Amino acid sequence: MPRTLAEELASKQREISVAEFFERNRQILGFDNPLRALLTTVKEGVDNALDACEEARVLPDITVEIAKAGPDRLQVVIADNGPGILKREIPNVFGRLLYGSRFHANRQSRGQQGIGISAAVLYAGLTTARPVKIVSKVREEEAAHVLELLLDTQKNLPKVVSDDLTLWDRESGTSIALVLKAKYQRGRQSPFEYLRGTAIVNPHARLVLVEPDGTRITYERASTEVPPLPKEVAPHPYGLELGELSYRLKSAGGKSIADTLGKQFAGVTPRAVTEILARAKLSGKEAPASIHGEELEGLLAAMHAVRLLPPSAESLSPIGPILIKRGLRNVLGDVRPDFYAPPVSRPPKVRGGFPFLVEVGLVYGGGLPPDQPIQLLRFANRVPLLFQQGACAITNAVQNLDWRRYGLEQKGGAGLPTGPALLLVHVASTKIPFTSEAKEAVAEDPEVDREITLALQTAARHLKTHLSRRNRRALAQEKFDIILRILPKLAEKTSGIVGKPVPDLTPVITRIMDVVNIDGALEKGPSGLLVRADLTNYTPRARVLELFVELPAESFPTARFDPTPDGTDAELGRAWWTLPKLAPSGKTRITVTFPAATEIDASDLSWYVAGVDEAHLLGGEPLPGDWDVRLPRAVIEAAETGGEDAVLAGESEVDYDAAEARANADDDE
Amino acid sequence: MPRKPARTPTTTSRPAPPPTPEALRPTVDLAREIYAQLDQGEIPRMRLPLRTKQNLQFQLRDGVWKLGRALGTRSARKLDGAQMLLRTFYLVDFINEMARDGKTSTLRELYYISEGWEEGKFHSEDESNLLIEDLEVLCQRLREDFRLHPEENGASVIGDLTIRETNRKGVVKKINCRDDVGDGGYGIPFNVEKEKIAFLSTGAKFVIAIECGGMVDRLAENGFDEEHDAILLHLKGQPARSTRRFLKRLNEELKLPVVVFTDGDPWSFRIFASVAYGAIKTAHISHYLATPQAEFLGVTASDIENYKLPSDKLSDQDVRALQAELTDPRFGTAEWRSEIELMLKNGKKAEQQSLAKYGLNYVTDTYLPEKLTEMGVLH
């Protein structure tokens, strides 16, 4: 009997192994060229190591050593101090694609799909045919296991080449050594950048990179707290798809569907259970595993339709403002930025059924290049994103913000702004909407975009405040130059010509300055860290001022103030003084002393003043209205009469020298 | 070192005049004003007439453009202003000191002297020159009254003009600017006032003021001055004060018509304006420097076309200069507007020496006689 066409076709049909598929589609996983292959390998290895350490609650100590192993070949060794892997699991973890512990866990983690590291193993095997060497030790065992293995691309199964034991001088940990076709180069998309970014958002990790030329870069820990492990929470129905629902129902093992709905899914209140069942036309007594087909679809539709509690954010692990600042400071120490904007950590929001949150850090000035686009560091679940910057929702949000309003240059009010700034944006979620499996860019999503934009705006406002303060300081510097360098000489010269004694310049000085100046500085003294605030009344009238200081609440208990404040609020970290009346040019000093070990700098203290108009205040801020402070009578009076000075200062006169300079510029006679 | 008495007893000159309190009193008044402000706790400031083209006003009486009434303020509220005020009094101090010691100083020397003025030091000679002009305006005096003078600038005169000059040493000399001088002509000194130079006689019928030295040489070599009874005056680009003053005196005292012969470009228009109408920077003394009777001979924009002169394209800078001239009140006449607009329209400029296209004698045999006849200077 002749074979039918269908039979003929059927004879050609055969299973394609997952490994085979990926072998032909390397680029999907980030192995399309030697530079990228190296970065992806390092990235997958380090992400796994960090996740493992976090789960085991240990402070990560991770070393990445890259060494030459022949022409266009590198050996990469990634070692951690994590919990180690049981011997029987080693082949599967490293030698089998789509094998992992985190895919089904509904919480924020770096790795998710279980593809990454085994793809690196696959790539190493394909390009050099050399097995990878795994050393792993768990706390409970005396010796470490040493396995060499290859990945069988036909069967998607690991092949153990050798199996041995060794002594390893650490309690637990894992090390993987791969030889692969790769190329090392520093640059925007390099292991160097990746580890730098990782160090910023994981200040609790100690990271070491050894480059092929022997250069050793160490990022020491800037924090000794292991970040809290995000709680694994039940999936929220809004984010569920049919397959996932079916899987959940089958594996739930609950007695009835009503029971399972209430217990296996987040945000489903008893009332919601009733509503869902009614909409899905179920009695509630059905066995969960028995629901299928149209019934299942109806159930899912009902779950999506009914009003539920939002998903819990406990499954998220934000870095937090304090650690963002510490991480940035730790890595950017050499650049000495002028300004670290208070980092922004937005409250969690929900996208579909998945909670997410956005964090932003911004650094300005110092050694950052002033005439180039700002540096944008993108992170998703604490992993640096180095590729696809243009296609990323984070980049778009940054580019769509009009940074000119906040003091950065930006052509046409769109695109990456220019200036000496570095911007960190972190999106954390139990399910980051990536643009592709390579997890290189965050996909556009209105909710996520909104949150990023809000966070950026908050950080940008801080920048604007900083810049306007800086401008005011520059203006004040000009005035100081006048009163200190020029005015005394002018007085001396004119007095000499007219043959009279030099007059008292105080009234002129206060007219030119016309500010109350606060000069805050930090110095290390024998008794600890000393923050001085020198207050000078450079205005033409005597003033009664009220001075307030706000410091980080955690350092408040150890702070000592001189003179003794007239009031304090330890909980809010505030202290205040009503200062003795300051005559024009009068000065007074307040000191705050901290124990030597305190982690604090002058910019952590904010100074607020009442009794003088904002336009006449330098180095401090006017007292915020929401402080709800009752001011002494004299202070109120001073503030009320303060307005006149501003009128005096704004004379509408033509500046002779400016007009002349302009005239000379366009006229060459 | 005090000046020695003049060796020649026959001298009619006087040495640098003794410190005249009258001349320098206004400088002390300035100091008194600032002192009073300081003493009263006011921010020191001065008001000065703005020396900008917007503040030029035509003075019917003198027929020149002078400073208008718009005032600017130089105040110690700004660092620049404070610095200029301080410099002003270093300068005043220095001027008074020179008067006591019987010294004079060149503008350039003054600039170097300011090295010792600490915060009052000048950053360029332009800065010090501008401040001296400010002081002239404020005190209604000339810089010579402050015993400050420019270097000899090298502008010269060739022609039948007999003058009496009292030289530096106090010797009186009678000089004919054609017969008693070399090929370079008579060099116009920085001081051309009557006590220094007197005009005795002239056989000339007009003065032709010329922008470039090369053209002066051409006219002299071709004997233009003798043939047409002309005085050739070399402007040397934008003319120095003494050159303009000398020209004005020739015009006023000897009643000689003055024509101005320059390149045909926007900058040459400005040379003419400063000769005839008064320059912006010295608008406070236009009545003393400008020659309102002076007439522009060329090269005009229409000359470039009519004589088919070799020309260059206007640069962006040239175009900007012409456009600036359109808003300059001195060029506000219909004639100037059409001249400037024609040059802008044609987009061409030409040097006066481009007339050599038709041979070395063309300028003296054809161009100038044609133009001068047209202007009614030659008949």
Helix count from the secondary structure assignment of chain A: 18
**What's the overall geometry of chain B?**
globular
The domain tally of chain B reads 2
Strand content of chain A: 15-25%
How far apart, in Å, are the first and last alpha carbons of chain A? 108 Å
**Which second-level CATH architecture of the largest domain in chain B applies?**
3-Layer(aba) Sandwich
Biggest sheet: strand arrangement of chain B: 10-7-13-12-14-15
H and E string of chain B: HEEEEHEHHEEEEEEEHHEHEHHEHEHHEH
CATH level 3 topology of the largest domain in chain B = Dna Topoisomerase Vi A Subunit, Chain: A, domain 2
CATH class of the largest domain in chain B: Alpha Beta
**What topology, given as strand order, has the largest sheet of chain A?**
5-4-3-6-2-1-7-8
Mean of residue pLDDT values of chain A: 84
Instruction: Characterize the biggest β-sheet of chain B.
Output: 6 strands, mixed
The whole-angstrom Rg of chain B is 23 Å
- CATH class bucket of the largest domain in chain A: Alpha Beta
Largest interface: A-B, 40 and 55 residues
Task: Give the total of beta strands of chain A.
Answer: 25
Say what the CATH topology of the largest domain in chain A is.
Heat Shock Protein 90
Low-confidence stretches of chain A: 642-650
